[in-house]
Amino acid sequence: MTDFQGIGAVSATLRTLLKDRAELPTGAATVLFTVGPPRSEAVDGTAEKARVNLFLYRVTENGSLKNQELPGRASSNGYGHPPLSVDLHYLLTAYGSTAIDEDFVDETRAHHLLGSAMRVLNDYPVITDDLVTVRAPTGQPILDTALLSEFERVKLSLDQISLEDLSKVWTALTLPYRASAAYKITVVQIQSRRPTRSAQLVGEPPAAGPRVAVVPMRRPRIHGLAVRRPTDPPDRERAQAYARIGDTLVIRGSQVGGERTHVAIGSFDATAAIASAAEDRLAVVLPEDPGLQPGGLPVQVRVDAPGVAAPLAGSNVAVFSLVPRVDSVEFKTGPKRLRVTGARLFAPDTASVAILGDRVVESAAYTTSRTDEIAFRLPKGVTAGTYSLRVRVNGAESIDERTVEIT
Fold first, then answer.
1. pTM
2. How far apart are the first and last CA of the chain?
3. Burial class (CB in 10 A: 0-12, 13-18, 19+), 372
4. d(CA 65, CA 211)
């Protein structure tokens, strides 16, 4: 890659190429090839010298090579401070007007020169090390010495600049507009002078060899959920996944049991509540914990490994519904009201209602509002008789068959 001289070397290379290969129009014994702002040397109304000018008006970073080292030149363990890769944008302008009279200037010669210069740049879209001059002194490299043996070649292409953008360039230069051609030269890589860093070599392994801990991976899978109530016999499992606090949630699956098994119910870690574990099923007694609230709750089985803080593998997710538990319903007189005890009967900031027969009592009417007890006055219009009582919290409704005698 080149040093800071790279940009100037491209300008010198283009000037040498045009000077060596451009054809001269009729009437132009000599043609000047210059690099700089496109200013005409003619006085108004007079002829001007035949000249082709290159003006570097823009430099942009090459995004394709940004942060890349040159292949084969960077150290295998070095990093930091790659070369600066830039594209150069030139304006090619030709001069050579001839005065016909004091009121008219003919620019035909300038147009001939512009066509000649564009033909040269089209014939040599890539400037290589072996391209040499054909005019005296012959056999000299056209490529500037600062660009010789570069990995990235100097490549030329017409730049598709709009007339509006081209006009902006001339306006910024405060010069009269002249027919010009825009070219893009890619790519110049300028080497950074900041030192790169090298990573340390890999040291020898210990005498006993590398110590690798192999942990067999077991990915558990849940096939289904079942529920066993405290009053159910040990061999009964209810297929409907509606569970209450104190019920046993049975997780059926494969590779779900083991000494390193964890059970997550929502955000609650229920591992400590595991009552029994086997390869094909886990039994978890739902504890009285604030982390378990009524509603649909996801269940996942996870397996960890020795020395690893987080579980390595998790099962698929199954869902069950945690519902309120109604233990007792008591009718009281003076004034007439009902007292209900159980678990998860009420939750703050959550829709909670009691259903007496077909009457719905909102939690705003509760005189007692606790998770284990609620109380409320009888709704108007309730006459003597036997009524069913259910409690619904967060859309989950109790499944206990409770009735109350109203007198």
1. 0.49
2. 101
3. middle
4. 41
Buried-exposed string 18-46: b where 16+ CB fall within 10 A, e elsewhere = bbbbbeebeebeebebbeeebebebeeee
Q: How far, in Å, CA of 323 to CA of 336, rounded? A: 27
What 8-state DSSP symbol labels residue 233?
Answer: -
Identify the three-state secondary structure at position 265: strand
Closest Cα to residue 17, out of 57, 66, 52?
52
The residue among 188, 9, 183, 189 whose CA lies nearest residue 89 is: 183
- Distance from C-alpha of 242 to C-alpha of 351, rounded to nearest angstrom: 19
CA distances from 285 to 194, 222, 243 (A): 66, 17, 10
Rounded Cα gap, residues 285 and 247, in angstroms: 6
What does the domain layout of the chain look like in residue ranges? 6-194, 221-322, 325-406
Residues whose CB is less than 8 angstroms from the CB of residue 246 and which lie 6 or more positions away in sequence, other chains included? 230, 285, 286, 288, 325, 343
- Angle, helices 108-123/6-21, rounded to nearest 10 degrees: 110
Do the domains at 221-322 and 325-406 have one common CATH topology?
A: yes
In 149-190, where does DSSP find H-type helix?
163-173
**What kind of fold does domain 221-322 have according to CATH?**
Immunoglobulin-like (2.60.40)
Task: For 3-43, write each residue's pLDDT tens digit.
Answer: 889 999 999 999 999 999 999 888 778 899 999 999 887 66
Quick count: other Cβ atoms within 10 Å of Cβ 48?
A: 18
Q: Fold for 325-406, please state it.
A: Immunoglobulin-like (2.60.40)
- What pLDDT score does 45 carry? 56
Residues in the chain: 407
> Tokens representing 365?
């009417």
For 77, residues 6+ apart whose C-beta sits below 8 A from its C-beta are 198, 199, 201
State how far the Cα of 80 lies from the Cα of 216, in Å rounded to an integer: 40
Residues 228-279 have pLDDT tens digits of: 999 999 889 998 889 999 999 999 999 888 777 889 999 899 999 999 999 8
